[in-house]
Specification:
heterodimer, A: about 110 residues
Amino acid sequence: LAKTTQPISMDSYEGQEVNITCSHNNIATNDYITWYQQFPSQGPRFIIQGYKTKVTNEVASLFIPADRKSSTLSLPRVSLSDTAVYYCLVVGSQGNLIFGKGTKLSVKP
Amino acid sequence: DTAVSQTPKYLVTQMGNDKSIKCEQNLGHDTMYWYKQDSKKFLKIMFSYNNKELIINETVPNRFSPKSPDKAHLNLHINSLELGDSAVYFCASSFRAPSTDTQYFGPGTRLTVL
């Protein structure tokens, strides 16, 4: 099962771009990389998912290098409301879901 | 129009008691899950059901028993509660059997065992 490693915490200021990197060295061929966001006292919420190269949606971008052993979640121009814990998740078709420890992002004014 | 709902939101009880947490989803999904998030914020999957059939059963004490009366409901019953059971329990659902499909989480049930 592919485990993930990501920074425990990050600080940023409003308006900056934030990049959170996740390592998943033993990712399997059929695994996807998925990121979830969790606010205090709420359940995790899906942000973005990708398999390779780059994926972009209205919330974030996900960059995955060719070897797929890592991925970077990019949040453009963060605001105070982006303060949350971000989880990197490697998801396979077999359904074994392993959440990493998460990165606590603190956005300051 | 809550997609995944859980009741109760808070549950405070004494050691040794038996309690249940209910979960319902109105998304028409086939698969539902139970997760446990401890005080250190580690989120771990406990169970998963697909169309009322148990498909994931992680290493969880036998005191925990999930029950799925239909594919829109997945309840969690806990017998003989222990202090270590204190945590936030999240229910989630996805369209298909465990796969790469997005999971939708409920608001959580904070269980405190005294």
